Structure formats: C-alpha cells, structure tokens
Amino acid sequence: MIRTRHLTKRYGDTSAVEDLSLDVRPGRVTGFLGPNGAGKSTTMRLILGLDTPTAGSAEVNGQSYRNLPVPLREVGALLDGRAAHPGRSAYHHLLYLAQANGLPRRRVDDVLDEVGLTAVARRRTKTYSLGMGQRLGIAAALLGEPSVLILDEPINGLDTDGIRWLRTLLRQLAADGRTVLLSSHLMSEMELTADHLVVIGGGRLLADTDMQSFLTAHAHGYTMVRAAEGERLRDVLCGAGGTVRPDRRGAWRVDGLDAATIGELACAQRIVLHELTPHRDSLEDAYARLTDQASTFRARAAAA
Ligand SMILES: Nc1ncnc2c1ncn2[C@@H]1O[C@H](COP(=O)(O)OP(=O)(O)OP(=O)(O)O)[C@@H](O)[C@H]1O
After folding, report:
1. What pLDDT is recorded for position 300?
2. What keywords tag this UniProt record (predicted)?
3. How many independent structural domains does the chain possess?
4. What is the C-alpha separation between 185 and 57, in angstroms, rounded?
5. Are both 125 and 267 inside the same structural domain?
6. Whose CA is nearest to atom 26 of ligand 1?
7. 3-class SS at 2?
8. Is the shortest distance between the CB of 16 and ligand 1 below 6 Å?
9. pLDDT tens digit string along 153-171?
C-alpha cells in the first residue's frame, strides 16, 4: 500500500506536485497517467525517498521509505532502465544488489530467469538494447519479492513479446496481492493492464477511479452503420436527431442515437443495413478529453 497526504514538491517557481493525496491499494494494477511534466516521476521519486517533499508525506506500508529496514524487500522500483553500471554484467549488478540487501544469491538466478535474461546475464550491460535494459530494471525491482512495485515507463523499448510478457507479469503480481503502480504514455497498453487509474495534470489530481468508471465517465459511445442506401439512411438518422459523419471506409459514424434506435429507424423505412456496430471511445480518447478539459480550465483560470 502506498499512501500520500498533501504531497507537494516545488522546484523554485515550478510546482511539480501539488497537494496530492492518494491511496494506491494492493491487489490491483494502478495506472499513473498525466501529460509530460505532470509530476508522475517526481511523485514516484518522493515515494522512494529520492527527493524530499516541500510539504506533505508519502508512505509505503505505513512507513516513510527512508525508515524501511530493508527497502528492497518492501518496494521494488524501476525509474530508469539505464541505471545499471555499464561495465558490469546483469548477473553482477543483481548480485551486488542482493548482497547489499541481505537477499539470497538464488534470487539473482530466479529473477534473471523470470525476465528472460539468463542467456545474456554475463554480458556487460553496456551491450544491452533498451528493452534488455528495461528487463534488467524489472529484475532488480523483483529481486526482494516486494509487496509494492513502482514502475516508471517500464514498457519503453520492449518489443511485442516483451509488452505481452510484462502485461501478464504485472497482472499476476497484482493477483498475488501486491501493489503495482505503473506509469506509461501507451494508453492502449494501459487499458489492457490497469484496473485503476490515477490521472494528474500540473502536479494536481485530476482523477482517482477504477478503469470502468473512468471510461463510463469520459469515453463516449457511438455507432458505425452502413447501408445499401447510405444517403437515405443518413437523412433518416439526421431527422431523428443523430449526428452523422462519414468515415474513411464509407460507413457512417452516428452520435446521439444508440444501435437499437438506428436499427428500428432503418427497419421502419425499409432500409437494408449491412453493418450496425456499437463502439466506445478508447482510453486514449477518454484521457485526451479529460486532460483537454483540465488544461482549458487551467488556461481560463490563469486568464481570469
Ligand atoms: N530536479 C528538478 N529540478 C527542477 N525542476 C524539476 C526537477 N524535476 C522535475 N522538475 C519539473 O517538475 C515538473 C514535473 O516533472 P516530472 O518529471 O515529474 O513529470 P512527468 O509527469 O514524470 O513527465 P514525463 O511524462 O515527461 O516523464 C516538470 O515541470 C519538470 O520540469
């Protein structure tokens, strides 16, 4: 469990994190979203005791990070995939971490195996690709079998297999009852991985809600429809109050009328439908709508 209360960090005139109060709970993957510069990395660094808050507090399992007796056993973190010494092998990097934290040597082999780096474990990390570096960072985070994981952009550089592997791993870690806080700009992946979302903008909390509620609140529904008599159908739907726009494939995108109503209107006018598909905006669309609203609000507030 991660808890922040009124967490605030200012760098001179820049407010990186402002009055942020969060409970990041175990048993689920919490996606941490926000535009560039929103304050995600700063929040993670404050939780990990790598920076000191200007005000407020951050705790992991009821204690500030700096008071945890063996931090790696409580919190595993990936903040920078290039954190390992370039001249050291992955094996020795992990062995050093294990010994410094009183962890058994076998954990090094276990995590290397888990992240798929066993075959290249003796190579110097400077020869690693970005994706291999990310896998090593994830191995280091898992080393102490912590109950809390904090991962800043872990998907960067992973190939398709790597992305699927990480998604499965994170969902499994959450199912085991761990707390997983994950930041990413890849919305499609976040939609598949996270159960819960925390969205920040300008250092402030914009949303803290489960994925389904977030989508219900911010994702719009619409219907794609195609008919033999496309123009006539468009006129009927517009007449019934729908907003109808053509899409690239020659279908109509209809907002304001649901699929059942469209089907009934077409039937009443004896128009044959070739397609009638309800859609919902993606997380990316919903997130864009929320952050647009927030920046418009901020711009208006600044102008007032
Ligand atoms: N050490 C620092 N000194 C001065 N300003 C900083 C420092 N670290 C962060 N900032 C500023 O704080 C704000 C928040 O930055 P942060 O890196 O936390 O955002 P982020 O949400 O992680 O962004 P991104 O998605 O680009 O990684 C930015 O305006 C950034 O320039």
Report:
1. 67
2. ATP-binding, Nucleotide-binding, Transport
3. 2
4. 26
5. no
6. 36
7. strand
8. yes
9. 999 889 999 999 999 999 9
